[in-house]
Each structure stands twice: as C-alpha cells, then as structure tokens.
Amino acid sequence: MVSSFTAILFPFLIFLSVLLFSPLSAVPNQKASFLYIEGNTGESSGGHSALKLGETVYHLQYSFETQVFSVVREPWELFRFQYSVLENRNIHLANIPLRDKSFLFLKRKWDELYLVQKLHLEGVTKRGKEIQFLQNASLAQEKEQKSLSNAVGFGYFSVNSSRESDFENKDLVELSLRDWQLKADQFQWVPFERSNASFSKTQLQKRETSQLSRWEEIQKKIKIRQALLNGWKLIPEHWSELSNEPMFQLNPSDQTFLLDWGKSEFQTLIREIKDETKTADEELIQLLNYITAKESLTLFSFRFPNQKLEHSDSGWIDPEYPESVWQNKESEAIENFNKVKPLWQSNPTHTLRLLLFSQAETILSARQRDAHPVSISAQPNAIGSLPIPSLNREVFDGLPDYESSNLEQLAELRKLYPYHLIYENCTNELLRYTEDFAKANPELRSDLGQEISLKTLNFRFVPFVAYQAVLDHYKVAEVEEAPSYHNLIRKDNSSFQNEATYLSSVYEFNPYDSHFLMFTDDTLLLRPAFGLFNFTAGLGEFGTGFFTFPFSGTKRWRKGVKGMFFSLPEMVFFNVRKGSFPYVNAARLPLSYHNYPRAVK
Question: Is the pTM of this model over 0.70?
Fold first, then answer.
C-alpha cells in the first residue's frame, strides 16, 4: 500500500524529472516575427511583408534585370533603416515564440531556399558572361584584332615593366610566375556544349566552375606576380587620397603603423603565393593593401583604392542633395573616420580597413558634391582587362546552341520563381513557403499554430490582411511596432510644425516625393481636409510646371500630377503617401530610435 506521503511526492518527482531531463528545445527560447510594412508611394505601395528570424530578415523581391522573383536575406538593422527611415514606413511585428529546434529548422529552410535560388541565378549569370566573352573573342578574331576581357578588381594598376622591384622573395615569385605561365600555355579551351541542367526549388546545386573562370584565375595570378616583379603604374581615376589638411596628414604613429602593416600584408601575400589554394581575388586584396601602405607613406596622407558601388538596388542615390545634407555627410564621415582609425590600427582587419576608407570616400564625395554611393563593395571592384587568347574555330561551333540553352534556363527560372500581383507576390509567397516548411515539421507546426489558408478569395495576398491572418491563426505572443522616422519624430515632439512639409524641421523636399503640403498618415479626422490641401498644391505645381515647361522640362508638372493622384485617397480617409527621408544619416536619428521595436499596448 502506498503511503500518503509517497502519493504526494510521486507526481512532484515526475514533474521534476521532466523539467530537468527534457531537452532545452521544449521551452520556447526563440521567436519568429512576421512583419507587415505599411505602404508608401512607389514600389510596394500596397505594403510589404517579411519574416524576421533572430537578427536576419527574409523577404521576396522581383528583379527587373532577371525577371525572377526570389528571396532576399539581409540584416534586420539594414532592413529597418531602409523601410522605416528612408522610406518612412511603419513596421508591425507579430512575435511567435519558437522552441530551439523549431527555430533552427525554420531558419535552415529559409537559408537553403535563399542559397538554392542564388546558385540557380549565379549559374545562368556565369554562362551569360561566358557567352559575351566568346562573342567578343569571335568578333575580334574575324577582324584580326586584339580583344580584351573585363577583369573585376584589376583596374587599379597596370604592370610597369620599366620599374623593377627588388625584394628578398623575388626568386619565389619568379618561380611561381613561370608555373602559372606554363599553365596558361597548356590551358585547353574545349567546344561549348548545350547545358541541360534542370532546376528544383529544393535541390541545392553544386556551384559551377566555368572554363572562363578557370582561365581568368590563371591570368589574374600571372598579373599579380608581374606587378610584384616589375612594379606597377596606378590608374589615377580608381584611387583617392585625402587632402593634406592637418587632420589627415600622417602623424608618426600613422607612419609606423602603415610601415608595419604594409610589411605584414606583403608577407601574407608571399605565403598565399606559396599556397596554391588561395584565389587570385584573395591575393589581390593583399597586394592592394601593400600598395596602399607604400603609396600613403610616399604622400604622407592616406591614399586608397576606390570601392564605390556606382549603382544600388535601393535607389537612394541622389545628385540633388541640399547643401545642408552635404555638410552633414562630411562632418559625420570625419567623425566616423577619426573613430575608426584607432580601432583599425589596434586590430587591422579587412572589415575595419574597408569601413575606414569608406568614410574617407564619403568625405571626398561630400566635398566634391558627387552623389554619395549607397554602399561600398566588400571586394575590389575597379574594372581592368585581360587579353583574350586566340581560340580555335571549333570552340565557337556550339556557341549558338549554348546561348539558346542558357536563355531557356533563364526562362525556366522565371517560371519556377514567378511574380504575380495577386497569386505570387511578396506576401502570399512568404506565407506559402512558411506553411510548406511547417507541414514538413510537426514541432514547428505546433509552435506556429493553425494553418493559414491562402485561397485567393481570402485576400491574403494583401499585406495587412495576411498580417491579420497571422494574428488570428498563429500563436502570437506579442505585437511590436517600429515607427516610421516621421512618426518617431512626432512621438518625441507632437506639434503642428511636424504635420506640414514646409514647416517641418526634419522633412526636406526631394526628387522621390510628389508635391504635397501635409502629412496625413497619422491623422484620420483631418485627413480629407489635408488631402484637399495636398490636391490643391499638386494642381498648383502642375500648372506652374505646364507654363514653365520650355525652361524646366517635365519635372514639375509630373510631380504635380503625382501629387494630385495620391491626394485622392486622402480625401476619402485613406492614406498611401507618407513622404520619404533619403537624406537622413546616423547623426539625425533620435535616441528613441534605438528603443524600438516596442510592444504595442
């Protein structure tokens, strides 16, 4: 007979054993956040959807270049700054607690999907580059001309045979150069054949190594060794230097660091030359670092290779910055440069070096009133050239069929990853992928909650409708909000001044916005009246632009038409236009920006 004490103790022991010996995944430690980003004029005017897992955001975007609708993966801070600050959109987060195993499974599936799509597109792009290379080579041979192939990253210098370098590792470099020249002589181009690769959303393909990439690797290795042996001649337009102002002159500490850093980068390069597993691009970074150190010491000020990205998908490159923006950018970049320099000198990593000289490029861009690049390339990106060899005619025989198969594969990718405003957009595809992953994992299904139906009649292709479906079906534990930049300013300082564009202390008119007078996204009762003001302002801008057309072109009247168009919904209590803030930099972010996202009561 069991004693009453044992009867009481036994359930407690069972509970304790479950608590102590259950895997950690039994307790929700992670969270997935379904994001609804409110609409604004331009792309995603109906809103946007994304999934945040940890500090990584996954969402889908359409590429106008490839016409493929694919997954984008980016850091949360970058995503938030783009949408809530530059594009001035409110971001709503529905947080769903997940156990460790569920979270890791979901993140792994999204990473796999991202990588599968990336490799699919990468293969088609590589073959397209190869086709262009062959077409140029064929045309040059027909005309008996020499032809050059673009080499990304090798546009910073040309080999200067008139200036011989002397260093203790010369014999090693000469021996390596002879080896690579022999490989170049022995390289055999074979006829290109039709590619019959097929694609699957779930199959991770092996990264392709094309004949062109193998040939380019050999030629780049040769060029690096020739530069070390014969010296180099810099291409001036691909290098920048800070002026000899006192703040940028190399002090004794800077000179000592550059001398030691240059020697260290050179020794690393020599080790890489011995190690044939290192790529030419890795060697190029070390060579450019070595050149940077030598050239800076010669000038007594920093000289560095440009790594601007001339174009960016985000589109926030503006040649019409107001004077105040240029001044803010310069002062902020100088402050950042002085902060990063001691960090780099105490820990000379590639990332800190890139950050330091990106600030220097910003300083120069601001001073020259040149459109500041949105981002800096992580790899050297100046375009150089490599001589295209003479190829046998049979190499070109299969080129038409090779090009045809590549176009067919690109068309297959467009069918595999299509975009449709209703049936396959950023919202229902995000939910569809997530639901597919949940079907394959019962634990994830249990953590997420009920299945969300994506039937067209449910209108869950609309971002805010899908967000409500997540709130209704998934196990949402908390709802948070990251306010738009303007609404954040309003929260800190609610005054009429911040409701009017022409009175606002933070808003600046820019080429991306239509002409309007009043913000209407944070008011409901006054929205029709404000919308009428905006419509009248747009009409006035249109009229002015129409009569000044011979002098100002179509710019003003087009902004007026756009302003009237987006004022119409406001007059019936609906808001789309929120304005944008492309000139905001880190110095203009209020301290409260870092207190969000914050739970909504």
Answer: yes
